[in-house]
Structure formats: structure tokens, C-alpha cells
Amino acid sequence: MKTMKAVVVCAPGDVQIRNDVPVPACGPYEALVKVAYCGFCNGSDFQIINQTMLKEEGLADYPTVLGHEGAGCVVELGEKVRHIQLGDRFIHANLRPDVGNGYTKTYGGMAEYGLVVDAQAMLEDGYAPSEIPFYKKCQKIPRDFPLVHGAMLLSLSESLSAARNFGAGPGKEVLIFGAGPMGTAVAAYCRLIGADRVVIVDSRPERLEGAKRVAKVDETVNFAERDVFTALAGQTFDIAIDAVGMTSVILQATKLLKPGGVVGSMGVLKADDLTLRLSDLQNNTSVHMLNFPYGEYDVMEENIRLIQQKKINPEDFYSHVVDMEDIHTAMELVRSKQALKVILKIEK
């Protein structure tokens, strides 16, 4: 049995590089991908590490292989694969739930190899979508698309789909809490799809400056220096997005909405912070739950075009590239907010 290196969460707070994780064998419709880079998700990856994600939300039993933002090249094909070729580039290569050698996966992208599936061939051969592994959970990218940028593509597509799902567009005024990589990306897409006004709130000056530069936001508020309600001086918004992941932010956001406005809950809420008292929400407003992405693969081709047209630059949304073996350095950079986002280099 061939084995590979992977980032494994062995117990809450215990992250290790293991080298005895089995390399997955290709099924008939599957292709093996050698992973080059994988993004570290500031939200859900730490939730998995800290066991603040629920099993119902996807947390598998420890020890579990981490990561869902991988990008790499196809190196092996199953015998019934017809629409994937050697050398094709893919994002979100996956592992089976039972990885082998006692390992599970949540979601398994921080490993040297992963699987993608030829869904088109399976559909042509009579399989139903429900029978297709990883259905709509992997994406081919152009061969000239940099793999390090591929490690950002899923997050960026989640942000574009969120902006659309929350209803951003012409005539809308949008307030965003959190100028991390996802909050800044959502702000950039809100601006791209025509929102009239975009304001972003954070406590770190360098992130607020980054949001001005990258997303061209109209206004920033540093809540460490100014009370948000005072700083906004009676302004109200059609959409207020929590890109942090706290119910207290959702409650604050609802107070800043116009009648009929929407709070977009985008940041991943922790397992011990899942309760909202509905009577505390402003009357005639809605909460749109999107703690986990919806429709991100439907906008991915569009997003690739936006990147190719230089309307979005993936380098604006990450700050460090770190070798996989230095996972603890990566974690500390994110935890201390020295990094906007870290990309792990998997392939030597």
C-alpha cells in the first residue's frame, strides 16, 4: 500500500503531519490528483482543529485529514474515465470518508494526493447524480491557471456566490462585518456586480486599508476606535453581512438594516454560539443563513473568467505561502492575524 503525507487533526488542538495516510486508489470513473497547494481556511479549518464544528456540519471522527481548498494535476486515470486527461488541473481533490489506516477526512485536501470523478462519464453511463461521488465538488481549471491561485478559487467562488445569494447588486447598499479574506472578497464581488455602496467594519487598520485598495469600498469603520452606530451616523443598509461568524455580530447587523433588509450570516458559527433570540432581531428584517456555501460551483467558470480578465487578483486575498510541513507556523500566522490567509505548499 502506497502512503502519503497529510495534515491530520489527531485530537482537538492536536495537528500533526502524518506520512502513513494511504494514497487513494482510483475507481473506474476516478482520477488521481497530485496536490500542489491547499488553502488554509481561517474559519472552518480552525473549527475542525478546535472541535467547534458539529458532526452534522461535516466534522468526522479524529484522526481526520484536514483541508478543502486544494489544487493539483491529474497523474492517473481510472479505466472508464473519458473526459479527464493526464495533466488536467483540478481544485478540490477529495478522499473517501474511510481514508484507511484508521483515518477519516474533513475534507481531506491537505494531502499529497486526492481523487476527482468523471461525473460526465457516469451520467452518460446511466448513473444518477446521487450515485456519483463528490458530485459538483471538484472543478477542472485551465492548464495555464496558476495552481497557487487554484488554491484560492473555491474561497473566491464562495464569496461571489454569497454576494449573489444575499441579493447584492444595483440599487443595494451593503455593510460587511469582517475584513478578512472572505469579507474583503465579498466586498469586492458586491462592487463588481454593481452594489451602489459598500462599507466594511473591522478592528485591524491594515485589513481596512486592504479592503479600500482591493474592494474599493466606500467607507471603513474601525470598531476598536469608533462605535459602529456612531460612526455610521444613522446610515442603514439593504444587506448587512456577518463574515466573522458570531451571533452577536448578526444581532448588531440587524439594527443597521432598512425595513425589509437582510442579514447575511456567512461566517461559520461555532458549536457553542448557534442560538439567536428572534425577539432581539429588528422587526421586518430577515436572516439569510449561509454559514456553508451554496452555489459556489455554479459561478466558478464565471470567476475563472473574472480572474483571467484581471478583474479579480487572487494574490490580493492571501499573504503567505508556507510549506505543508510548517503547518504550525501557518496556524500561528492565521491565529495571530499576522496573515490575511495562508496557502500551504504541498508538493515539493
Report on the architecture of this protein:
With 348 residues, this protein is of the alpha/beta class. It is built from 9 helices and 17 strands. It has helices at residues 44-50, 119-124, 147-165, 181-192, 205-215, 228-232, 247-254, 300-308, 327-335; strands at 3-11, 14-22, 30-40, 64-66, 70-77, 89-91, 104-106, 113-117, 139-141, 173-177, 197-202, 219-222, 237-242, 257-265, 286-289, 320-323, 342-345. Strands 3, 5, 6, 8, 9, 16 and 17 form a 7-stranded mixed beta sheet that branches. A 6-stranded parallel beta sheet has the order 12-11-10-13-14-15, sandwiched between helices. A 4-stranded mixed beta sheet has the order 2-1-4-7, covered by helices on one side. Strand 13, helix 7 and strand 14 (257-265) form a beta-alpha-beta unit. Helix 3 (147-165) packs across helix 4 (181-192) and helix 4 (181-192) packs parallel to helix 5. The two termini are 21 Å apart. The mean pLDDT is 95.
Summarize this, please?
This protein has helices spanning 44-50, 119-124, 147-165, 181-192, 205-215, 228-232, 247-254, 300-308, 327-335, and strands at residues 3-11, 14-22, 30-40, 64-66, 70-77, 89-91, 104-106, 113-117, 139-141, 173-177, 197-202, 219-222, 237-242, 257-265, 286-289, 320-323, 342-345. By secondary structure, the protein is of the alpha/beta class.
